């Protein structure tokens, strides 16, 4: 499956952005999905994940209550709604697909749990 992110940009502290991730080349609904981010000089870190059906989600503590992950299986698209953005949210954001076998829950919050990755989209939050 191929993944292409979009929706990044430069925004001010407190603003909102919605990232999208369009999937192609596979059956989107069989993959659990996640968002990760990577700031300069730092390791890639987990942001949010969603189960195959969209019924279960998980979030990093740093974004809980501000970010919302969702998916539209009919459109083969994953979303990340980001509200109340902070300068520390500045990073390249990646979407990822997992062949995680548990259909009811999101995958573990780790890079190794995901099999396919997009190229990333830059999010910059100014103070």
Features:
127 residues; mainly beta; seven-stranded mixed β-sheet; four-stranded antiparallel β-sheet; 0% helix; 48% strand; globular
Task: Walk me through the structure.
This protein is an all-beta fold. It has strands at residues 2-6, 9-12, 17-24, 32-38, 45-50, 57-59, 67-72, 77-82, 91-98, 116-117, 121-126. The protein is globular.
Offer a quick outline of the entry.
With 127 residues, the chain is mostly beta strands. The protein is built from no helices and 11 strands.
Estimated structural class:
mainly beta
Distance between the termini: 37 Å
Helix coverage percent: under 10%
Annotation field: number of helices = 0
Nearest-integer average pLDDT = 96
Shape: globular
Order of helices and strands: EEEEEEEEEEE
Largest sheet, in brief, is:
7 strands, mixed
Number of strands: 11
Report the radius of gyration as a whole number of Å.
Answer: 13 Å
How large a portion of the residues is in β-strands, by DSSP E? over 45%
Low-confidence stretches: none
List strands and helices in order, with pairings.
Elements: E1 2-6, E2 9-12, E3 17-24, E4 32-38, E5 45-50, E6 57-59, E7 67-72, E8 77-82, E9 91-98, E10 116-117, E11 121-126
Parallel strand pairs: 2-11
Antiparallel strand pairs: 1-3, 3-8, 4-5, 4-9, 5-6, 7-8, 9-10, 9-11
